[in-house]
């Protein structure tokens, strides 16, 4: 006899619950009660009234599911749709694997004396700052000198690919959100969820869907995590464009297209670039975590430091990540500053 | 030029135009038709009465000035002319076509080719050079750079900004930015130009310059200009036809001189009470077309001269009279007595002026 027997009897559901109310003890507390020789008829003490949770209701009625079955059900449900889902997702995401493989192959098989000057050239092109160029050169050469060149380049390659894809999809999604309030209202909860879910949680369903050896597994995890800021800031940037300027564009008969490419995107560019900066920083954070699911790069060394308690390896790799973070941040901020300079209102 | 309003073609006709802001504008129309005013509608139904039964004819080649205090609906009204705002009810006819029937393509054609606009806050594109801003209408129409470059340079020259083509708007002062705004509107070559408080953000000297520039350009181009202003001096200086708005309805519309001499109600009396009447009133609106001079005729004057000029010609003699002549033709006579009477502030002189005008 359990606390909530009365509930099922008043609802007339005893039939559904089955014959036995308490003959087969299912929980520990039942066993304990039995061993104490209490066979159920005790008065319910109000202080010990259990919350009518799934388990408590199951005590009273075995046909009622236990909460363990919820997680089990979710798992089974996911496994059931997993095959169909991967049939769809696999081909769609395959290009991501190819892109990541190609980038990793490319950056590791191009000689360092081409890669390093190329990176410095990019730095110069976007920042036009000698100081920054010297700083970036010092960092990369330093990392190479302590034999972290390959790891650092792998990390960079992954970030470039993922950030590029984030921009490729994030900017159009942000534009869509800025033009339709319905779409904005529908998208914002998803973005909130992506941003608040702990990064490890993404990995769980992804591991079921894709094999751990595939690069797209960590690619997707990074993209889902890092795409949020570029979407948000594109949306915000376009919505914040001066209403008066938009009105002038309308008054001179611009089409929506002319307005978007001629006015809104150029004027939202500082915000979009701020989003790109954040996206890159978040890719870097995630690429370290993604080493748990075979993402190569500096994260692997950090992981080794943790697993094998190799303090020095972990710390040096951590320092390398910090350097990369600073480089990426400074370079994107410098290009942002240059855009801002030409956009002064 | 100023008296023949009836003989001019009507470029824009505004007919029974209503605009109500709020969630259920159509439902509110009934209350407004029943005579509910702006503040009452706000109190009982939480809707803003933006415009109420506006009827205005804008004549071709005229500067039509719409004036009113802040919140009287001036900006709302001018934005109906190119449908930046759609009305709750009513019609806007441009060259005889109701633009509310236009589809998107026709509307775009209207905005690209037939109307241009100058804004109070300039609204230049900050990321484009002065040249590109000036050529906005042309680039929107899809003209090539080679075509528009010359046109832009020509108009920038015309507004006194030659040589600034490569600069960005933020590098210019407010007055210069509005010159770009004006050049941008002129470069579109549209026959109608809408100007929403175009000079209000400028300081007084630059403002006068810009007004003179506009009048000078108008001599030459004869555009149909709809000009919004909250400044009576500016309105009187520019207007061929003056429309005075209050709480979303038209209180009075007429030639500016008539409004000064025959204000329709106390609101307008208040409006014009600070004005220097001698400087604004002209001979033609005060003279008598018939009859002989009462005193001896001491000289000849033109119909467009201001009373201030007449007073200085009379040397302060209140008994003399002038013959009003244009191109050697006699138009009427002006007694200094009439001049004095016209200068009496409106509130006090209402009776005298009214009876005289209807006689
Ligand atoms: N989008 C809107 N929603 C609600 N009310 C509005 C809207 N636009 C204008 N109004 C109201 O309509 C009235 C007229 O506004 P409008 O901007 O036309 O005034 P204005 O005469 O141009 O004033 P100002 O001299 O300050 O520019 C005001 O009471 C304003 O509050
Ligand atoms: Mg206004």
UniProtKB/TrEMBL annotation, chain A:
What's the main place this protein lives? Answer: membrane
* Domain of life per record: Bacteria
Q: What residues form the membrane-spanning segments? A: 102-122, 129-146, 152-178, 190-211, 217-234, 280-303, 309-328
**Protein's GO biological process:** choline transport; glycine betaine transport
Intracellular or extracellular location(s) = Cell membrane
Gene3D superfamilies from the UniProt entry: MetI-like
Keywords linked to the UniProt accession: Cell membrane, Membrane, Transmembrane, Transmembrane helix, Transport
Q: Topology with regard to the membrane?
A: Multi-pass membrane protein
According to its record, what are the GO cellular component terms?
ATP-binding cassette (ABC) transporter complex
Q: Which PROSITE patterns match?
A: ABC_TM1
Q: Which residues form the ABC transmembrane type-1 domain?
A: 152-332
Coiled coil as a keyword of this entry, yes or no, is: no
One Pfam family per UniProt: BPD_transp_1
List the InterPro entries hit by this protein, alphabetically. Answer: MetI-like, MetI-like_sf
Question: A single GO molecular function, which one?
Answer: carnitine transmembrane transporter activity
Coiled-coil parts of chain = none
Per the record, the similarity remark reads: Belongs to the binding-protein-dependent transport system permease family.
Name-wise, this protein is Glycine/betaine ABC transporter permease
TrEMBL record, chain B:
Where found? Cell inner membrane
The cross-references to SMART domains, in alphabetical order and at most eight, read: AAA
Record carries keyword Cell inner membrane: yes
Where are the membrane-spanning stretches?
A: none
- Membrane topology of the entry: Peripheral membrane protein
Gene3D superfamilies associated with the record = P-loop containing nucleotide triphosphate hydrolases
Enzyme type, top EC level: translocase
**Chief localisation class:** membrane
Catalytic activity, EC? 7.6.2.9
Instruction: Give one GO term, molecular function aspect.
Output: ATP binding
Specify the ABC transporter domain's residue ranges.
36-272
Cellular component GO terms, alphabetical: plasma membrane
Per the record, the domain of life is Bacteria
Instruction: Quote the catalytic activity from the record.
Output: a quaternary ammonium(out) + ATP + H2O = a quaternary ammonium(in) + ADP + phosphate + H(+)
Q: Which UniProt keywords apply?
A: ATP-binding, Cell inner membrane, Cell membrane, Membrane, Nucleotide-binding, Transport
**UniProt GO BP:** amino acid transport; glycine betaine transport; response to osmotic stress
- Do you know which InterPro entries this protein is assigned to? AAA+_ATPase, ABC_osmolyte_uptake_ATP-bind, ABC_transporter-like_ATP-bd, ABC_transporter-like_CS, Gly-betaine_transp_ATP-bd, P-loop_NTPase
What NCBIfam families does the database record attribute to this sequence?
Answer: proV
* Family to which the UniProt record says this protein belongs: Belongs to the ABC transporter superfamily.
Give the quaternary structure: The complex is probably composed of two ATP-binding proteins, two transmembrane proteins and a solute-binding protein. The complex is probably composed of two ATP-binding proteins (TmoW), two transmembrane proteins (TmoV) and a solute-binding protein (TmoX).
What protein is this chain from? Quaternary amine transport ATP-binding protein
């Amino acid at each position: 006899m359990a606390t909530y027997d009365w509930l099922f009897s008043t609802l007339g559901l005893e039939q559904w619950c089955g014959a036995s109310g308490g003959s087969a003890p299912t929980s520990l507390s039942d066993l304990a009660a039995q061993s104490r020789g209490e066979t159920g008829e005790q008065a319910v003490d109000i202080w010990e009234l259990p919350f009518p949770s799934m388990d408590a209701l199951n005590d009273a009625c075995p046909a009622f599911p236990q909460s363990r079955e919820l997680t089990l059900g979710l798992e089974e449900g996911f496994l059931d749709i997993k095959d169909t889902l991967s049939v769809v997702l696999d081909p769609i995401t395959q290009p991501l694997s190819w892109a990541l493989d190609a980038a990793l192959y490319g950056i590791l098989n191009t000689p360092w004396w081409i890669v390093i000057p190329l990176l410095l050239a990019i730095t110069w092109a976007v920042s036009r700052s000698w100081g920054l160029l010297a700083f970036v050169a010092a960092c990369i050469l330093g990392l190479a000198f302590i034999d972290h060149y390959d790891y650092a380049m792998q990390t960079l390659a992954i970030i470039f690919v993922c950030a590029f894809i984030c921009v490729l999809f994030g900017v159009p999604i942000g534009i869509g959100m800025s033009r339709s309030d319905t779409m904005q209202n529908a998208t914002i909860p998803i973005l909130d969820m992506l941003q608040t879910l702990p990064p490890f949680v993404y990995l769980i369903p992804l591991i079921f869907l894709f094999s751990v050896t595939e690069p797209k597994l960590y690619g997707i995890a990074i993209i889902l995590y890092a795409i949020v800021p570029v979407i948000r800031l594109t949306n915000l940037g376009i919505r914040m464009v001066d209403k008066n300027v938009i009105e002038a564009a309308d008054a001179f008969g611009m089409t929506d297209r002319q307005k978007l490419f001629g006015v809104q995107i150029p004027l939202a560019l500082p915000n979009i670039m701020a989003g790109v900066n954040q996206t890159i920083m978040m890719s870097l954070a995630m690429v370290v975590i993604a080493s748990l699911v075979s993402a190569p790069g500096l994260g692997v060394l950090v992981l080794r430091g943790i697993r094998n308690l190799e303090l020095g390896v972990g710390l040096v790799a951590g320092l390398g990540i910090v350097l990369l973070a600073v480089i990426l941040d400074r370079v994107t901020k410098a290009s942002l500053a240059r855009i801002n300079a030409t956009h002064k209102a | 030029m100023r008296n023949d309003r009836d003989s001019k073609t009507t470029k824009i006709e505004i007919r029974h135009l209503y605009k109500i802001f709020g969630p259920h504008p159509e439902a509110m129309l009934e209350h407004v038709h029943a005579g509910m005013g702006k503040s009452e509608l706000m109190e009982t139904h939480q809707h803003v009465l933006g415009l109420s039964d506006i009827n205005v004819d804008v004549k071709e080649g005229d500067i039509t000035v719409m004036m009113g205090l802040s919140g009287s609906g001036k900006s709302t009204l001018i934005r109906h002319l190119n449908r930046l705002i759609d009305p709750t009810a009513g019609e806007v006819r441009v060259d005889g076509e109701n633009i509310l029937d236009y589809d998107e393509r026709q509307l775009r054609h209207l905005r690209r080719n037939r109307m241009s606009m100058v804004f109070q806050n300039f609204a230049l594109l900050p990321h484009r050079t002065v040249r590109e801003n000036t050529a906005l209408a042309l680039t929107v129409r899809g003209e090539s750079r080679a075509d528009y470059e010359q046109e832009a340079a020509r108009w920038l020259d015309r507004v006194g900004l030659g040589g600034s083509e490569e600069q960005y708007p933020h590098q210019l002062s407010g007055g210069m930015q509005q010159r770009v705004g004006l050049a941008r509107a002129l470069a579109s070559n549209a026959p109608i130009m809408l100007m929403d408080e175009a000079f209000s953000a400028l300081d007084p000297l630059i403002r006068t310059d810009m007004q003179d520039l506009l009048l000078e350009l108008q001599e030459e181009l004869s555009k149909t200009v709809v000009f919004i202003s909250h400044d009576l001096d500016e309105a009187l200086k520019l207007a061929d036809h003056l429309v005075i708005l209050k709480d979303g309805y038209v209180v009075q519309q007429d030639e500016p001189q008539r409004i000064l001499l025959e204000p329709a109600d106390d609101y307008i009396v208040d409006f014009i009470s600070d004005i220097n009447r001698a400087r604004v009133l002209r001979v033609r609106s005060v003279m008598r077309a018939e009859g002989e001079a009462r005193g001896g005729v001491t000289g000849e004057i033109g119909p467009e001269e201001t009373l201030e000029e007449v007073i200085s010609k009379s040397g302060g003699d209140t008994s003399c009279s002038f013959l009003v002549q244009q191109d050697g033709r006699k138009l009427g006579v002006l007694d200094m007595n009439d001049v004095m009477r016209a200068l009496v502030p409106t509130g006090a002189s209402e009776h005298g002026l009214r009876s005289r005008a209807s006689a």
